[in-house]
Amino acid sequence: MTDNQMTTRERIDAIRARYDHCFGCGTSNATGLQLDGFERNGNQVTVEYRPQSDHTGFADILHGGIVATALDEVMAWTAMLIEGVFVVTGTMELRYRKPADAGATFSLVGNLEERRGRRLMITAALYDGDTLVADASAMFLTVGQLDG
């Protein structure tokens, strides 16, 4: 089976088999974000994020670096699940719009906007309910194909 024929679940399983200690998505990484439950719909990937108490900054607000990591992670998964490629972040622009309540459950949404050769332009947003908390745009570079 080639990468283009892999289902979303098969891609997730292939990634997890190799990288389950990743800080962003590794379910075996006790201190990481443990993002799991990725869903793909066309050029969009979504996942929920429930912060751990270790992810706070001050006054029960989610640390800004954790917000950036979560957005970066959903964008990388967008590339992996839609294009079947491993990527690294080339550049990322981020805008914080509201303080993120560390006790909330957030929705992350990644969108593949464009691909030009090895470069993928991806956007992402972090929501608390219907409220946009932060958004980002990034250019990712492919570093390899997912194994079939």
Structure explained in plain terms:
Strands 1-2-4-5-6-3 form a 6-stranded antiparallel beta sheet, covered by helices on one side. Helix content is 22%, strand content 39%. The chain has one domain: Thiol Ester Dehydrase, Chain A (Roll). The model has no long low-confidence stretch (mean pLDDT 92). It has 148 residues and is an alpha+beta fold. Strand 4 (106-116) and strand 5 (119-128) form a beta hairpin.
Rg from alpha-carbon coordinates: 15 Å
Strand segment tally: 6
Overall tally of domains: 1
- The general outline is globular
The CATH architecture: Roll
Largest sheet: 6 strands, antiparallel
Distance between the termini: 6 Å
Q: How would you classify the helix and strand content by structural class?
A: alpha+beta
Strand portion? 35-45%
How would you spell out the order of helices and strands? HEEHEEEE
Enumerate the strands of the largest sheet in spatial order, edge to edge or round the barrel: 1-2-4-5-6-3
Return the CATH class.
Answer: Alpha Beta
